[in-house]
Amino acid sequence: MGVRDRVARFAGARPRPFVVAAADGTGARLAAEAEFRSRGWRAAASPTETGFLVVCGTPGPVLAGAIGTVWDGMPGARARVDLRTSGEVRLVDAGLSPGHATADGTERTAGDVPMAGRADDRDGLRLDVLHVPLGPVLAWWPAGLRLDLVLQGDIVQHAEAVVVDTAAESFWDGPWPRGTAPGGIERRRAAARLDSLARFLRVAGWDGAAGRAAVLRDETLAGAPGDALGARFAPFARRVGRSRTLRWMTRGLGVLRPGTAARYGMDGPRALRAGDVKDRVDGWLLETGRALERLADGARGAGGEPWSRTGRGTAAVIPALVEGGDVAAARLVVASLDPDPAGG
Fold it and tell me: Which helix (H) or strand (E) holds 286?
């Protein structure tokens, strides 16, 4: 029984799934997102909004512990669906335990809250210092990434990126599963960039544009012709690229300079475009448009430049780009880099 049938058995209304992907779970996540959209279900932005948890892929022990913590804290009545890369679904009974593993492997009960210390801020005032993790279980967040922040107020004083889940091969670089269309480098490039755009736009709060990017991504994966995809992508790209609100939100955030990329050994497509968050988004739009043009021209890899979704140094550079900004800005910066822990 596949994803569609098993999810249908459990769903009597219109739930709001909270989706978590392991490093090897990209294919399952894409299938789940497409299925949920076909049913008119909206994804939850937080596990506290819903009792429906969807785990994509096979998480390693650290990520599994973090997922268990989130599961224990979700409101009832709850249902959990595990989608492995094969597409199989398993319903897990909702059982509470008195203690549960946190992301760092320690035990924490439901009443534990991180304690604040004090330190001088940049103006010489004494402010609370909070140690706060972002991820690894967070909506529209890179799989397997945890960003440990030291905050004073809402300003990031220090950050450390930790990859807690990895996979041997990225979905975007490995053999594509049955049901996805061939098309070589250009189809992969376009679909991967549209996926990154969809996730970034969700974080930015532009749900309509995010949904459009996801539809285009799924049509690309399903084998739609490049010329038809290009015709539908062009107005989307103009709207996102010319958005004054998006430019205002991202101006000067997470500025990546060529020297910074080199210092962290950053390679791959992310290292090729210096600038801020909006510059990286514009780069994705440009790269996607060109890939669809080459796909329409019949290029199946040989005519396009070499490309890989993964790239070294992406997670390592994040702390340098988020320190000094606020938490909301940190989420936008991470989304604009969209590191892939698989294969790299």
Answer: helix 277-296
End-to-end CA distance of the chain: 33
- pTM of the full structure: 0.82
Where residue 92 falls among pLDDT bands split at 50, 70, 90?
A: very low
Give which of 326, 335, 266 is closest to 132, Cα–Cα.
326
Of 150, 172, 141, 152, which Cα lies nearest the Cα of 45?
A: 141
Extract the tokens encoding 21.
């992907």
- Residues 291-300 have pLDDT tens digits of 999 999 875 4
CB 331 within 8 A of CB 216: no
Task: Tell me which H or E stretch contains 22.
Answer: none
State the Cα–Cα distance between residues 256 and 247, nearest whole angstrom. 16
Tokens 């995809």 correspond to: 229
Q: For residue 206, give the amino acid letter.
A: W
Q: Using N-to-C axis directions, what is the helix angle for 207-221 and 26-38, rounded to 10°?
A: 110
Token reading at 299: 């290029």
Domains of the chain plus CATH, in order, are: 3-101 (no CATH), 107-163 (no CATH), 184-337 (1.10.645.10)
Euclidean distance between CA atoms 216 and 278, whole angstroms:
20
Q: Convert the pLDDT of each residue in 229-248 to its tens digit.
A: 999 999 999 999 999 999 99
